[in-house]
Each structure stands twice: as structure tokens, then as C-alpha cells.
Specification:
Strand order of the largest sheet: 1-2-3-4-5
Oligomer: single chain
Strand content: 25-35%
Largest sheet: 5 strands, antiparallel
Order of helices and strands: HHEEEEEH
Helix content: 25-40%
Number of helices: 3
Amino acid sequence: MTPAEATVDVAATILNQLGGPRFIAMTGANRFLRGIHSLSFRLPANFARRGINHVRITLDADDTYSVCFGRVRGTRYDIISQHAMVYADGLQRLFRDQTGLDTSLGGRP
């Protein structure tokens, strides 16, 4: 697997763990950006709790995730909260707890 293929694979896996197309529909997530071992995206303005409109999820060497919730305004970026050692099965819950947005229809995963 080439580094470019690995980047796409990691980003796709993160998105699937969040809920895939249903996640996008429920949250309005957009402007997805794949990093070497990460996925970042924007949320609609004034949609999420505490003004969060940017999320970056990074796969760490120990197969857990680091998640950063932030707010972008113009050229300014403010970190709202950071979380380390998040397991894949905890991504949706963490996202919901931090943003107040459900990640799927029909209740909690």
C-alpha cells in the first residue's frame, strides 16, 4: 500500500467509525481534509455546542485516536477541547458529548 492509499484508508475508516453518510447527513459535516493519519472537517456555523465548527481526529501509534474540537473564525483558531486515547467505539459518544449533535438517526449508538 502506498502512503497515499494509506492516507485515504485511514480517513475513510475514521469517517465510517463516526457513522459514514448518516454522520454527514445528521451533522452537516463538510470540507473534509485527509491528513497522513487523520481526518478533519468543518461543521456549520452556530450549529454545535460551544461554537465548535472544526474537528480533527488523528490515529495514534497505539491504535487509539486523539481528537481536537475547535472554532475557526477568519484566520483565528481556538481549541475548545482535546482528548487523547479515544478508542474507535468511543468516537461517536465523544463527538456527541462535545458538540451536542447526534451522529445517527434513531437514538444512541
